[in-house]
Write a structure and sequence with these properties.
single chain, 597 residues, 36 helices, 72% helix, mainly alpha
Length: 597
């Protein structure tokens, strides 16, 4: 049976309260198709498996138990709840599955990570319409298997506008803009979705100028078209042009305003973002969160808190709470951050935990960060820790020299599936280096699948900090052989190593080489390191000459003062002390050093 004996007005269920009311009605009238439809759709959307099962149980006892339409909805609902076995059992009860039934089943398997099984179902379908072909092709596009998407497209005997649009999206995501354009040009009929897909292809592949030119050719650009081009231009930093496009747009919706607000927030123009925010007739959670984040990140925590307190339905949206926690942590207001965190109750998500853990670690409370992570492992099981969690905890272990906790975290990264992340590997190098296990730090770099220049710089700096000058210096040519050019950070580590080892001649060689061979512009830290090393080696005249040829800072001057006192050269020391006092008249250090001659 594919039609229902009793139809009532369409039912809209938008909350758990509506759901419970509908279930009560269903117990009184178990033959109402629209009640089942509304309940099952809401259960799928909200992933309310228990309520969905109750509705299914009532359906089996009703005259609608053989209704194919309702069975299709149950297949979809169980799939959204991750219950493939139950979805399949419902499908198997359908006397005559239609193309839509089969298509729903293959989509359900794919969205639960079983794309190969979806393909098997697709090939087993007794008949396929263009919607089924499009569904299979889109599933491949979603999973970035563009070759298989192209294979499906090529096999299609009949294609509609959605088939061509899906292929444009596939080429776009694979970076093949020329093929996307060729596909678009071959189309005999286009709709707004097609035009927007091609516009998105230009934008996604970084061709903003061409995107704007293409935008002008769209016969009737809709809100999606306008929002896409405004966002693309804004992300390129051309906020003036983005604002012009915004003013030209005939259709301004919440997304249009949010695009402008977010763009101004990202460039720290919170005042302009607030102007757009105030002009909005309707605001959504994205609007409020963008403003809260903008104020919090720019240090205006009172304004951020005012926005937070005014935000409607904030209890349903953890993003606003997380923005405030991050803002408080950034400003070192950890008590305020912890108070909000504790007030979240069941609303905490992984971002909430990460924000507070990072806040403790970045403010010098490494032990507290580690303990909070341990509490998270016990209390929070909804999501696995991610790379952000691991980096924050490893950095906390490094700053607090907690080797045992660092090793424990190292073991956990395999459980969390982030062992191949370069940023996690770099944090491991830093942690082992800070804790004195340099050989282990080196092993991490050697075994990393995708080491980068930060990996090498961290390892060189670790050896330098622990006085292993010879090895730190030997790492430089190895880094270059690995395909990475040394930068200012690299030479800071190498020169520091020379300083720890008293290697003034090597320091001078590296200082000359960084400019002549690698084109690296020296910064104050480089000059200070070489000046300090020359001074401690008794080469006070060379140190003074270098000081006079550089942008002078108090640290370099005081290095010469200290070296002059060590070697009994009152003249050079006095000149350097005078310069130091001119740079910072409030500092008493130059006079203290001079008084000890």
């Amino acid at each position: 049976m594919s039609s229902s004996p009793f139809q009532s007005p369409k039912l809209s269920i938008t909350s758990d309260a509506d759901l419970h009311s509908a279930l009560d009605q269903l117990r009184l009238s178990s033959d109402c198709c629209n009640l089942y439809e509304g309940i099952v759709k809401y259960c799928g959307k909200s992933k309310n498996l228990s309520a969905g099962r109750r509705a299914h149980s009532l359906l089996q006892q009703s005259s609608l138990r053989s209704d194919r339409y309702l069975a299709n909805l149950l297949v979809e609902m169980y799939g959204k709840c991750g219950k493939l076995d139950e979805a399949r059992r419902v499908f198997d009860t359908i006397a005559v599955p239609n193309v839509f039934s089969w298509t729903l089943l293959l989509v359900v398997y794919a969205h639960n990570g079983h794309l190969r099984k979806s393909r098997q179902i697709f090939e087993a379908m007794p008949e396929k319409d263009v919607a089924a072909w499009n569904a299979m092709m889109n599933l491949y596009v979603e999973n970035q298997d563009f070759d298989s998407a192209k294979e499906i497209f090529d096999r299609m005997k009949a294609r509609d506008v959605f088939s061509w649009t899906a292929m444009i999206t596939a080429y776009s995501h694979s970076g093949d803009l020329e093929s996307a354009k060729a596909c678009f040009d071959r189309m005999k009929r286009r709709n707004s979705v097609t035009w927007n897909a091609m516009l998105a292809a230009y934008i996604r592949n970084g061709h903003t100028v061409e995107a704007e030119s293409f935008f002008r050719k769209i016969p009737r650009p809709d809100a999606v078209s306008w929002n896409s081009i405004i966002s693309a231009v804004a992300k390129c930093g051309d906020l003036r042009r983005a604002r012009q496009l915004f003013d030209q747009s005939p259709e301004k919706n919440v997304v249009t305003y949010n695009t402008m607000i977010t763009s101004f927030v990202q460039t720290n123009r919170v005042d302009l973002a607030k102007n757009f925010f105030d002009r909005m007739e309707e605001k959504d959670s994205v609007s409020w969160n963008a403003m809260i984040t903008g104020y919090a990140q720019s240090g205006h925590l009172d304004k951020a808190r005012e926005m937070f307190d005014r935000m409607p339905d904030r209890d349903r949206d953890p993003a606003s709470w997380n923005s405030m926690i991050s803002g408080y942590a950034l400003e070192g207001r950890l008590e305020d951050a912890k108070f909000l965190f504790d007030s979240m109750d069941g609303k905490r998500n992984l971002v909430s935990w990460n924000a507070l853990i990072a806040g403790y670690g970045q403010n010098g409370y490494g032990k507290e960060a580690i303990n909070l992570f341990k509490k998270m492992v016990v209390e929070f099981r909804s999501e696995l820790p991610n790379k952000v969690t691991c980096i924050s905890v490893l950095d906390a272990c490094a700053s607090s020299l907690s080797l045992s906790d660092g090793r424990a975290m190292h073991a956990r990264i395999f459980l969390y599936g982030v062992q191949s992340e370069t940023v996690v590997g770099n944090s491991l190098i830093n942690m082992y280096g800070k804790c004195g296990l340099l050989d282990q730090a080196a092993r991490i770099l050697i075994t990393m699948p995708h080491a980068n220049s930060i990996s090498w710089n961290t390892l060189i700096g670790s050896y330098a900090q622990l006085g292993r000058a010879a090895i730190a210096i030997q790492l430089l040519p190895l880094m270059i052989c690995d395909g990475f050019q040394p930068c200012q950070v690299t030479f800071s580590g190498v020169l520091s190593a020379c300083g720890h080892g008293g290697l003034w001649s090597r320091a001078r060689e590296f200082f000359v080489s960084m400019v002549g061979d690698f084109g690296v512009e020296p910064i104050a830290g480089h000059y200070a390191c070489v000046i300090d090393l020359l001074g401690r080696s008794g080469l006070l005249i060379e140190a003074q000459d270098l000081l006079q040829s550089t942008p002078q800072d108090e640290i370099s001057c005081m290095s010469i003062v200290g070296a002059s006192r060590l070697h009994g050269n009152c003249g050079i020391g006095s000149q350097a002390a005078l310069r130091a006092s001119q740079i910072d008249p409030q500092s008493s250090a130059p006079y203290v050093f001079l008084s000890s001659f």
